[in-house]
Specification:
The protein contains eight helices and no strands. The longest helix is centred in the N-terminal third of the chain and has 20 residues.
């Protein structure tokens, strides 16, 4: 065989491993890893020191929660998600009032809506398999891109090392 024919052949997959990966729910440690940047972003928002990236993290999770709601696997959270999105929008509007992101404290109603949302989103993620979460994420990305939005891929290190706000 030549190198060209070996490149064209597909490598056999471990179908049991693939099926288990997509059919099982997230382990507690995996769920905690997913929720850590979300909870850190919420804590920064409550403290009034959140940077724009942390707002984007919460906004992205609200979009993902909406997409999960559309799958009809976990239903009945649309009202809470809408309240969280409204809170994110008003918070973002106040923070960008000067044309540049400035951390502002959350109002009590926003804080309550976002805290409730984060808890309910964790419940959503507990109910889904890894494959269902992956498919919902891919659909969310497709919707954002087809609407003309940009998708920002952020690693865990970038989230935890978000720059601290400083007055310049």
């Amino acid at each position: 065989m030549t190198a060209a024919t070996t490149q064209g052949q597909r490598q056999p997959r471990n179908t049991i491993r693939t099926a288990r990966m997509y059919a099982t729910r997230l382990l507690a440690a995996e769920l905690a890893l997913c929720m850590a940047p979300i909870r850190a972003s919420l804590a920064a928002a409550v403290a009034g020191v959140a940077v724009q990236r942390q707002h984007q993290i919460l906004d992205t999770q609200a979009e993902l929660a909406t997409e999960i709601e559309r799958t009809r696997i976990v239903r009945g959270l649309a009202g809470h998600i809408a309240q969280a999105q409204a809170a994110l929008e008003s918070w973002g509007t106040r923070a960008m009032a000067s044309g540049m992101w400035r951390p502002v404290p959350l109002e009590f109603a926003e804080q309550d809506a976002l805290a409730t949302f984060v808890d309910l989103h964790e419940f959503q993620l507990q109910q889904l398999s890894a494959g269902e979460i992956y498919r919902a994420t891919q659909r969310m990305i497709s919707r954002v891109e087809s609407a003309g939005g940009q998708v920002l891929y952020v690693g865990h290190a970038q989230v935890s090392n978000a720059p601290k706000y400083s007055e310049e």
